[in-house]
């Protein structure tokens, strides 16, 4: 996990978030992918998250999405 990404069961239900904020990785990734906002714009509209935190959140989300896809593929190949 990136230095900027953390989890805490007491904050936003334990979802991965940008350290020092209550902004989840999922929220940032949706802004990036669905709303097609740039990391710079996301950092601008989320004052508790800097651009580095936004980029780390996007990277974290993409890496975890890739791992989910690999896991699904392994299950499909193994027939489980």
Q: Give the quaternary arrangement of the chains.
A: single chain
Q: In which order are the strands of the major sheet placed?
A: 1-2
Domain count: the total is 1
Report the CATH C-level class.
Mainly Alpha
Poorly predicted ranges (pLDDT <50, ≥5 residues)?
A: none
> Separation of termini?
28 Å
Tell me what the CATH architecture is. Answer: Orthogonal Bundle
Estimate percent helicity: 55-70%
Average pLDDT rating:
91
Beta-strand content: 5-15%
Task: Work out the radius of gyration.
Answer: 14 Å
Could you name the CATH topology? Arc Repressor Mutant, subunit A
Structural class by helix and strand composition: mainly alpha
Question: What overall geometry do the principal axes of the alpha carbons give?
Answer: globular
**Series of H and E elements:** EEHHH
Largest sheet geometry: 2 strands, antiparallel
Find the count of extended strands (DSSP E, 2+ residues): 2
Number of helices: 3
Gist of the model:
By secondary structure, this protein is mainly α. The protein has helices at 25-33, 39-45, 51-78; strands at 5-6, 17-18. It comes from candidate division MSBL1 archaeon SCGC-AAA259I07.
Structural description of this entry:
This protein has 80 residues and is mainly alpha-helical. It contains three helices and two strands, in the order ββααα. The protein has a single domain, classed as Arc Repressor Mutant, subunit A, CATH 1.10.10. The longest helix is centred in the C-terminal third of the chain and has 28 residues.
């Amino acid at each position: 996990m990136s230095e900027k990404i953390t989890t805490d069961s007491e904050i936003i239900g334990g979802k991965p978030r940008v350290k020092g904020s209550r902004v989840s990785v999922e929220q940032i990734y949706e802004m990036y992918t669905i709303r097609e906002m740039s990391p710079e714009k996301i950092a601008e509209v989320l004052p508790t998250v800097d651009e580095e935190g936004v980029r780390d959140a996007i990277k974290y989300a993409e890496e975890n999405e890739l791992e989910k896809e690999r896991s699904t593929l392994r299950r499909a190949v193994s027939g489980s």
